[in-house]
Amino acid sequence: xxxxxxxxxxxxxxxxxxxxxxxxxxxxxxxxxxxxxxxxxxxxxxxxxxxxxxxxxxxxxxxxxxxxxxxxxxxxxxxxxxxxxxxxxxxxxxxxxxxxxxxxxxxxxxxxxxxxxxxxxxxxxxxxxxxxxxxxxxxxxxxxxxxxxxxxxxxxxxxxxxxxxxxxxxxxxxxxxxxxxxxxxxxxxxxxxxxxxxxxxxxxxxxxxxxxxxxxxxxxxxxxxxxxxxxxxxxxxxxxxxxxxxxxxxxxxxxxxxxxxxxxxxxxxxxxxxxxxxx
Length: 279
Ligand SMILES: C[S@@+](CC[C@H](N)C(=O)[O-])C[C@H]1O[C@@H](n2cnc3c(N)ncnc32)[C@H](O)[C@@H]1O
Ligand SMILES: [Zn+2]
Hints:
This protein is α/β, with parallel strands linked by helices. It is built from 9 helices and 11 strands. The protein binds S-adenosylmethionine and zinc ion.
C-alpha cells in the first residue's frame, strides 16, 4: 500500500517531505497530490509529457506474458540477489517497474521490506498498485528528480527500463545496491532473423556500465539464460513488450511467424548486474 512508502517520498514541486493527508499526499508548503481510486499517487510535475510510457496494450501484453511464468527464473534470481542485501524493514525501489511483477517477487523473498514501484505509465502503475500488499506505486519520470528522499532505498531494481545514474546515486542508501537487468546478445536468437527483430547490441553491457560510471562501480554480474517454448501468440506478445514493437508491425509479424513451428523454442538471455555506490 502507498502508506507503507510515504515516509520515503518527497514533494515533486518543492522537495519537502510528503505525508498522508485526508485523500491524498501533502507537503508542508501545501502542495497536494491525489491518491487514485486504485491506490497509486501521481507525482509527475504538471508539465510532464509521458512520451515513453507504456500504452495500455503494451501493459496488457506484458502482464499476460509475465503471468504465464516465462521469466520466472530471472525474477527468482533477481529476488534472491536483492534478499541477500536487504534485511529488516527497508525500502526497495523498482525504477521503471511496469506492472510490479519483479518487485512482487522481490518482496516475497524479503518479508520485512516494503517496495516502491515507480513508472511513467499510469496504466502500468495502476496494475503495480495491486501487485503486492507491501508495495506502493507512484507515477513519476525517471529523467526528472525522483520524488524520494536522499538515501531512501536500500536496493534499486531496474529491469529493461531507463537508468538515471545521478538520481539513483542520490536516492540509494550508502550501503545499498543497484540491480540492473539487460538483455544480452543471444536473446531471442533464433527469432531475430526470420521475424526481422532488432538485435541486442554486442556492446549493450558495456554501454550500461559506461552510463553508470562516475556514480557506481560494478559489484557482481551473472548471466541468466533459459529457453522458453512459446506459441505464436506468446511470441507476438513478447515482441509487443520489447523495442521491436514499434519496428515490426503486428500484421507483418504474424505473416512471418507462419513459416515457423508453433510452438517453438526461444532462448532468453539476460545479464543481472549489481552496482555499489561510489562516494
Ligand atoms: C520494457 S518496460 C519494463 C517494465 C518492467 N521493469 C518489466 O520488466 O516488466 C519499460 C518500462 O519503463 C517505463 N518507462 C519508460 N520511460 C520512463 C521514464 N522516463 N520514467 C519512468 N518510467 C519509464 C515504461 O512505462 C515501462 O513500464
Ligand atoms: Zn511541496
